[in-house]
Amino acid sequence: MERDKIAHQRGISAATKIAKEQSSKEIAKGLQTMKLTLNHEIDRLKTLQTKNKNIRPEEIQSALEERATLESLIKYARVRMDAMQVIIIE
């Protein structure tokens, strides 16, 4: 019984370590995707504003603020283990 408990703890530690290692890659991918999407939208709005005065500066400012907020949230995302599947081989 104690041996099983130790094995489970080691499994949880190993899974957590792997998740943390992968999280930095996923965070970087998330930041890149978000920036590509919002930078495209911000650039589109700025270009459109030069041709259409109905595009208000507040719309562009709102997109800039959204990008800053999302960047902060994504940068400080953290790993949380929700579940672990244990397979017992006898």
Automatic annotation (TrEMBL):
- InterPro entries found in the cross-reference section: RapA_C
**GO MF terms on file?**
hydrolase activity, acting on acid anhydrides
Q: Which residues form the RNA polymerase recycling bacterial C-terminal domain?
A: 10-88
- One Pfam family named in its UniProt record: RapA_C
Q: Which domain of life is it from?
A: Bacteria
Q: What is this protein called?
A: RNA polymerase recycling bacterial C-terminal domain-containing protein
